[in-house]
């Protein structure tokens, strides 16, 4: 319930125009991937325009903005950000000019060799306005473009230098380019609407603009739309790596109506619930889920176990960014403001409750209390994600080991601390089976401390 | 999906203070009843303070506001409003001063004799700042207080004059008073937290502030907290009327975790689905619901029919007030921005889809298209509300007959216009059975054109 | 430099329309009379509309607002307010409905019998939304209208009951009415532009809308535009009183290009300086003024004395409402942010510096220091207003005796405290001669404690 | 009345801290140099922070901002900008990181070789986020720092490459540096407050923070505060150029209480009026000025001619950025909203009116009409600036020749078009004499088309 990722990206190439409006609706469909800031850059002939700011898509853009942003290409970005102050300055896409003209970059992910890259280029005279990965990626692309025969080749040469998670959409004056890191950490797919091509973080964005799904961008691929409006691809830009799509995309980040690398997100969540039922059979009267992303796992558990599913927790939909949290004295009721138990479902019952994950344990503790106050006879807490044992270096906002529940306590202690009758987590082995249709390997580093890319000595930034 | 009610009310009497904060969280729990404006008035000794504005609870109040509003009583209000311009000026509670001091009024509902009352009092010299029902109610209370021995009796004398829907919370310098109209159109309940008393439109607001449910305010009752902090009641202020709680509270307005006049809202929605299944048996492969309020009826239908329930439509949670609707040319895709079909659920299937109601038919038409585009083999549309045949005079925002789908077309025509394989509505007879635990009679005037209060010649306002 | 008045009013009757736009420019010309809030109400046929809010005229109204406010009559208001919180709710005009329809009231001034009036009407059942004088005036007008044959006669009957300062503009569905209190405390004038009639607090507002000055509204007069568009007048509504136009209008409040009751404000300020020179001859090298309202008196002093005038203090024009005042430790430099001395004017010189008034003495002390730091050899401080010895009950924001410099110290002490070489004030006798063209008597109560209306036992409000 | 310059800069080095607050008050004193955007960057140890946005100083910074910006060095900037859209992104200071750490740049002026520089560096791999001069200056400093032994020497090496107007303040982690172009187009001075050093565009900013004036930065000098807090200087960074301080600084831009290169601005304006009187003797009754910057020239004319000075035009001080201009039909009255004539001064008189400059002639035409409407018998218009005959390439916003009044018409035609009885301009010869104390040569290119730097083929940007 408290894990965040950094971004969603969107790009469209449509000679018939109206690209800003499509980007608007595409970003809106990707809003769940980032609510802090957003932006759209468009290309109209040689003229690049950009509008970006802190806020939701529906707040940042006015009708006038979209009219002014008119063009035949657009890239867009939604951003989740942990930094407090300057939300506005970290908004993407980044727009730049260099010897070959202008270009824009939108980026989702996190590099692990960014400090090395920064040092390398600073010694050669680079100056940077921000500390973002995106700016250094843009810088390398511009440098490579001085030597490379084309912008797409410059992007490919850049990809070779980057280590970490990155799904990129790049817009030059005449081309739209998408690139996905060789490990495939983050999703990126390709859609088509008549003669228009679309790149997006998730397939739900294709649906929202009436485009049909074509295929995913492959790990390590640089896909682009050429001057004839044809989709082309560069696949030789880097060696073959062990692929590692983030499993949290299936458990939590992605929208259930998205299909990632061939796997339906909704189906994966149901499957996670089914495996939970196999691993943790419980004598109970009802299975409930924690809204929103725990509901599907609960339904899967019910299907597999035969215990009836019912709605047990109701979520308040209106919590906003400026909402005032209850004071310290009333801290135990902060969950109560977001969630309320359905007494008619849980009163007198033995309840299995499934959350998408358990990070620090504080929410789980309050949930158990909430359900007991509503009359639950027994409360069995299950997590459809395994125990978190390590941080993420690839863009997911997982706290340090010192704060991770499963790093500090044994399973027994955890169960006692949250006050449940029993506590269970999905095993890593089962987790690896929840996406059987997926064409990509997985990263489960936060559950195993084994990452697709060796990460040594990753200091705090 | 497009029906709105006007308001939610909240009142708290707590000698230990902190009433503004409780009102804040109480209103937040009632936010679904109105998102346009909100306000809180508090009483601290003889000093009354008020803060109200257009916007969500989380937007209108800052931490400083709550600190300044400190007091031992508070009344709060959330408002839905159709009027475009002056949202801010219609915000409640209304705060007033008169010969006996100051008082505040928060009101949910709609009077049918407001024009008569206004004319009557204007002839006697009244002047009004607004055209709201609330101001005239406040005016009558103040007039009656000149003659009555107490403020609660003045409220009782006022109740006698009002015809229509009203759930009121009134705060004088020393007393907190709640009144519900003799017909009981809108819900109003009583809670307790240690020595504190709470009045609220729905029981979910009691839960949010850690109060326990005591009972509902009865139709025609004036309940109040006296100077000793005891709950008292006036029940003789008007004759016994045929009670008529709005059935739309169960179908749509209220939160599923609320219990109204003894009836769980969640259970009522499941039951509506069960009756739908009995009345409209369909040979189908899957039952899906339209989020959010159609989901429970779909689950009830599945339970009764044995056809499996599955998630079939995913809702985008981020639509905001300034969201730009697609242009005229793309009008048919406005539903697509809010909802997306889960191909893995509906593709190749015979689908039963249940919405909470069908008003104009435009949304249903787009839903059917959305499902067919996602591969549904058959689409059977059911409404868990009966056909709308008449307007509401008691605060629910139902369009005029000219716009109501069921007033313009036969069932067959409707089915053809929305493009479904079949179309069905819950019968009024079944509707009356969805709330078996309810202690109150029902108003189903919008489905039958028979209202608890005769309404002749109700002109447009 | 720190005295404020409450308001400016404006009204226009123009059958050819565009009244909101004229009111906008008229209020803008009156902005110096109040910068806290403003509003415009218009009448279009029977439809009254209003837009008002906290802020400057240029901030509150958009082009769309003016378009929507279109009508054939308008009243407007700018407000200065000492109250912190609810600026917005105190904004005028007040718009009301009663048995005869709707009307709007804009009011400048302060009543001394408001508590008596409020008590009187509350006993008869009145309820009030605010504690403003304006609401009680509106209430009485509505009450009187029940008995009177016309709205203008109701206003006249109201005028009879009010004691204190009031310049009113009232707009009913068909008539525009202006009333000035029998003492004539505040200015109010009449202008004409083709067939249109205009009422305004100052003649500079007539100039700004291209109207020509007709005459002032007389003390105790109710002037109105009748149904034929002719200007009419009621003069018998109250007894003849000793008139008492506020002398501070000439010294400080009014714009120098206004003419009030026949007297040019600019000329009055020059004359104040001339009398100062006669009363306080000083051997000096240069005369300077404190911008903006001390400059003219300084020029008058120079003309009379023969000592050359020069600019000696430069004002920063950009101070805004949210400007951060320097911390306590740096308190003595707050004047320095607003004013800077011109070294080339004052260095090595014997300087006479003239301010419009001296209230608490703190500003004067800083001014003297500023001039000495810039090299002034001698600093002689003169005030073109006499010593303040008493509060104002008629709308001018003069602090209590406890805070008034001249109430706490002798002239010698004052001179020593501000650090000047000499200190002088204009005498009350001379003050009474600065407006020789004025057709009205004067109120100099704050300098003499003798008011046109006896004020006994005026408690703090 | 319609000429704008681009910026004001401020820098402070104060080991005792509180630099953000000083920058705040310093920028506030420089607000007349730019009202569109502003910003402050501070250095606290190695940590650089920045806050900048569109808006006035009093609007952009909150007390919390200043508290967070605490540090021992600060640079600040106020900006005037002609570009419509992205005010916010053009705000300065620019903050950057490179191999040696972080630095900030604030810049006032305009380069003429920016296109060459940009091309030169882009060919070597530079990428730019904006099209501003400031970014390219920052880029070159960072490049030069790779080779130079110190940041101040890198700035000196940068200065050598720049052609055009630039007054810079640069802040590195440990040093504060100020640089002025070799021609000295824009002012830049040095102040001291105890151990603190201050650089500012105008001396009035020194006064506002209680600092004393030390000296001006010389054209071509790079001044800096070294690690011991001592002021040092590099003067050999470029060849000796003919100096050319912008004469419009004296006529219009600078605040009258500033002293630039030894010359009092106030005294220069008086002198301009004196020379006007010598060149254009007129038989008149009164001399008036157009507020604010024409007033001093009018006083100088009066002193020289013996014709009495009087206030003749009153300015409305409250015009804001969102003020609604009158519609096309009422275009001739837009001046009337800002200015009103004092009838008591001009009625029946032969009037000499002095404006600081005449650009397009439209304002002058309206002014003459305004004065005649107020009863002036004759109106003689004089401009204290010579005729504009050429654009400015160094940061002053002068329109193209096609729009310049004096480029399109003869003196006679101009006089007829504005409707004056006579029209005169200060001669270029006299203009050159208005700043006798100035240690710097002048640029009068906009009056002579001869610039200190040859400008050939300066295309539109």
Structural overview:
Four copies of one chain form a homotetramer. The first copy, chain A, is α+β, with helices and mostly antiparallel strands and 461 residues long. Helix content of chain A is 29%, strand content 25%. The first copy, chain A, has 17 helices and 23 strands. Chain A has a seven-stranded antiparallel beta sheet. In chain A, strand 9 and strand 10 form a beta hairpin. The longest helix of chain A is centred in the middle third of the chain and has 15 residues, at 265-279. Chains in contact: A-B, A-D, B-C, C-D. Chains A and B meet through helix 1, helix 2, helix 7 and helix 12 of A and helix 1, helix 2, helix 8 and helix 13 of B.
What tags apply to this protein structure?
homotetramer, alpha+beta, 6-stranded antiparallel sheet, elongated, 7-stranded antiparallel sheet, 461 residues
Number of strands of chain A: 23
The secondary-structure class of chain A comes to alpha+beta
Biggest interface, residues from each chain: A-B, 52 and 52 residues
Binned strand content of chain A? 25-35%
Please estimate the helix content of chain A.
Answer: 25-40%
- Helices of chain A, by number, come to 17
């Amino acid at each position: 319930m408290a894990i965040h990722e950094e971004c969603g990206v969107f790009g469209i190439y449509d000679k018939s125009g109206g690209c800003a409006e499509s980007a608007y609706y595409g970003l809106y469909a990707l809003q769940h991937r980032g609510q802090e800031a957003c932006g759209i850059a468009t290309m109209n002939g040689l003229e690049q325009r950009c509008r970006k700011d802190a806020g939701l898509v529906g707040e940042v853009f006015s009708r006038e903005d979209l009219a002014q942003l008119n063009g035949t290409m657009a890239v867009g970005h939604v951003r989740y950000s942990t930094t407090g102050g300057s939300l506005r300055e970290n908004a993407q896409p980044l727009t730049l000019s260099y010897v070959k003209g202008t270009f824009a970059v939108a980026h989702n992910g996190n590099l692990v060799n960014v400090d090395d890259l920064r040092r390398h280029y600073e010694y050669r005279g680079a100056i940077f306005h921000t500390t973002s990965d995106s700016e250094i990626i843009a810088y390398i692309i511009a440098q490579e473009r001085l030597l490379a025969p084309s912008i797409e080749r410059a992007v490919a040469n850049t990809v070779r230098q980057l280590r970490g998670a990155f799904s990129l959409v790049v817009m030059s004056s005449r081309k739209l380019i998408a690139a996905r890191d060789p490990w495939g950490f983050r999703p990126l797919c390709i859609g088509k609407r008549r003669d228009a091509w679309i790149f997006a973080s998730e397939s739900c964005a294709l649906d929202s603009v009436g485009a049909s799904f074509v295929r995913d961008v492959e790990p390590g691929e640089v896909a682009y739309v050429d001057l004839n409006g044809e989709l082309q691809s560069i696949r030789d830009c880097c060696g073959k790596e062990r692929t590692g799509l983030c499993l949290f995309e299936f458990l939590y980040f992605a929208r259930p109506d998205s299909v990632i690398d061939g796997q339906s997100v909704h189906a994966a969540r149901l499957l996670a619930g089914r495996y939970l039922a196999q691993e943790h059979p419980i004598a109970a009267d009802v299975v409930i889920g924690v809204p929103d992303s725990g509901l599907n796992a609960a339904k899967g558990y019910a299907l597999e176990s035969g215990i009836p599913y019912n709605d047990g927790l109701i979520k308040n939909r209106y919590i906003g960014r400026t909402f005032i949290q209850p004071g310290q004295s009333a801290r135990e009721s902060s969950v109560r403001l977001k969630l309320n138990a359905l007494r008619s479902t849980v009163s007198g019952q033995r309840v299995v409750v499934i959350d998408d994950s358990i990070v620090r344990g504080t929410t789980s503790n309050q949930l158990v209390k909430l359900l007991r106050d509503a009359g639950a006879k027994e409360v069995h807490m299950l997590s459809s994600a395994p125990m978190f044992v390590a941080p993420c270096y690839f863009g997911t906002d997982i706290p340090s080991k010192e704060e991770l529940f499963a790093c500090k306590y044994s399973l027994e202690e955890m169960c006692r601390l949250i006050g449940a009758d029993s506590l269970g987590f999905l095993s890593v082995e089962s987790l690896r089976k929840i996406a059987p249709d997926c064409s990509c390997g997985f990263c489960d580093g936060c559950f195993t401390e084994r990452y697709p890319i060796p990460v040594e000595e990753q200091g705090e930034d």
